[in-house]
Design goal:
It is built from 13 helices and 15 strands. The chain folds into two domains: 137 residues, Alpha-Beta Complex (Aspartate Aminotransferase, domain 1); 274 residues, Type I PLP-dependent aspartate aminotransferase-like (Major domain) (Aspartate Aminotransferase, domain 2), CATH 3.40.640.10. The chain has a seven-stranded mixed beta sheet, sandwiched between helices. A four-stranded mixed beta sheet has the order 1-2-3-13. It is an alpha/beta fold and 450 residues long. 37% of the residues lie in helices and 16% in strands. It binds pyridoxal-5'-phosphate (PLP). Pyridoxal-5'-phosphate binds next to α5. The site of pyridoxal-5'-phosphate has 16 residues, from α5.
């Protein structure tokens, strides 16, 4: 494409498309992608990039997988779509449900399909309340969510999101939600981090339950490790303690595994790291590696049994036209097969070690405050003063400037404040991982000096 054609496309885009998390000033000179192969992307000008965030923690098996295009074409040729409302089913959705249940935590029993992570979270919140309704405890409705959480863009998901910019201009937020602290070892107000974690942050969830009154609380929701909130793995004792608190107060635990599911952290699902089982989980993104949209929430045996034994008038009146979309489910089945056949879960663990070892070397730079991650998802948090951990003045826009330098050097990523977030496809090569690390270092130096 020549420069004039690209400029014309940009102009039309600005005239007619509202983008996610949009402000027109942030969308000048948008990169227009035209091709992807493996961990690489190319824009309309022919410039090559490493996809350092798997296009939003999404394209796990990498770009350009012909077998996923073929399976979609074959399914579309046979049965592109049929609805899955009660009384109807299709073969790929049935097979995928069985496959998912064989992959997820032992205690999980049944899946509800939808189209996006936000819808999966929304459904998880609704099924939590519905479960207590079935159990004849309709007063148990409050959902406890955590600071730094990102759970999506719908109103329920926004209410459980703990990042204030996502609330601005959308108030009042829905009622029936309460907030607790999270586990952020580098910036913990209680203790200094993993080595001496007292789990006071987990106990804050108990305080939130007690403030609301345990008889009114339906569930606690959390990402096993925060993603968009800054890629923040918790200390090892955190989730076991939260599980124990939930059990003690008869409160359900919802795991939002929209980013962490399907291998990203070096296990199929992230709570496996701490041997914790949720009652409900939300999955999306890597379930199809984003070749087509698909998501779902999955419930435990006791919730499924409560649904199966409910009286005929206690219907779960929740649904989406495209739930259980046969083409999306066929692609998911093939995608999961690729993850298994190519050992990508183990590979995420190994590549993640390499990525973090590389990023650890950047600690020689005085502005690198924290390097963290789990499997193939990592963050580098920059600080103005390592001793006090003082953040840079937001007006300096240090994080966004580093991100721009990285883009110019051919690595696409995202930042949260001054944390640089990384999550390349699970099949990224060692050389590409090293290139990402070098680019992070060069870009930080370009912005802040060495
Ligand atoms: C943990 C988590 N939950 C939910 C969502 C929402 O997913 P979607 O953007 O597909 O609606 C996201 C999106 O990044 C996410 O990171």
């Amino acid at each position: 494409m020549n420069k004039q054609e690209i400029e014309a496309l940009r102009k039309t885009d600005l005239s007619h498309q509202i983008h996610p998390q949009f402000h027109v000033r942030d969308h000048e000179n948008a990169v227009i992608f035209v091709r992807g192969e493996g961990a690489l992307l190319w824009d309309a000008e022919g410039k090559e990039y490493i996809d350092g965030l798997s296009c939003l923690w999404n394209v796990a098996v990498g770009h350009g997988r012909k077998e996923l295009a073929e399976v979609a074409a074959q399914q579309m040729g046979e049965l592109a779509f049929s609805n899955s409302y009660v009384g109807f089913a299709n073969v790929p959705a049935i097979e995928l449900a069985e496959r998912l249940i064989s992959l997820v935590y032992d205690d999980m029993q049944a899946v509800f399909f939808c189209n996006s992570g936000s819808e999966a979270v929304e459904g998880a919140l609704k099924i939590a309340r519905f479960y207590w309704h079935l159990r004849e405890r309709p007063e148990k409705t409050t959902i406890i969510a955590r600071r730094e959480a990102y759970h999506g863009g719908t109103l329920g998901a926004t209410a459980v999101t703990g990042l204030p910019p996502f609330h601005e201009g959308f108030g009042p937020l829905l009622e029936g939600f309460a907030r607790a602290e999270t586990c952020y070892p580098y910036r913990c107000g209680h203790c200094a981090g993993a080595d001496d974690c007292t789990l006071a942050c987990a106990d804050d969830i108990e305080r939130a339950i007690l403030r609301a009154g345990p008889d009114t609380v339906a569930a606690v929701i959390g990402e096993p490790m925060h993603g968009a909130g800054g890629v923040i793995p918790p200390t090892p004792g955190y989730w076991p303690r939260v599980r124990e608190i939930c059990d003690r107060h008869d409160v359900l635990l919802i795991a939002d595994e929209v980013i962490t599911g399907f291998g990203r952290t070096g296990r199929w699902f992230a709570l496996e790291h701490w041997d914790v089982q949720p009652d409900i989980m939300a999955v999306a993104k890597a379930i199809t590696s984003a070749y087509v949209p698909l998501a779902g929430f999955i419930v435990s045996r006791r919730i499924h049994e409560a649904m199966l034994s409910s009286p005929p008038d206690a219907k779960f009146m929740h649904g989406y036209t495209n739930a259980g979309h046969p083409t999306a489910c066929a692609v998911a089945l093939r995608n999961l097969q690729i993850i298994e056949d190519e050992g990508l879960v183990q590979r995420a663990a190994e590549l993640g070690d390499r990525l973090r070892r590389g990023l650890d070397q950047l600690a020689v730079l005085p502005c690198v405050g924290d390097v963290r991650g789990l499997g193939l998802i990592a963050a580098v948090e920059l600080t103005e003063d390592r001793a006090t951990k003082a953040p840079f003045d937001p007006a300096q826009k240090v994080g966004p400037r580093v991100m721009k330098e990285m883009r110019e050097r051919g690595v696409i990523t995202r930042v949260k404040g001054d944390s640089i977030l990384l999550a390349p496809p699970l099949m990224t090569s060692e050389t590409q991982i090293d290139r990402i690390v070098n680019t992070v270092g060069e870009s930080i130096k370009a912005v802040l000096g060495s």
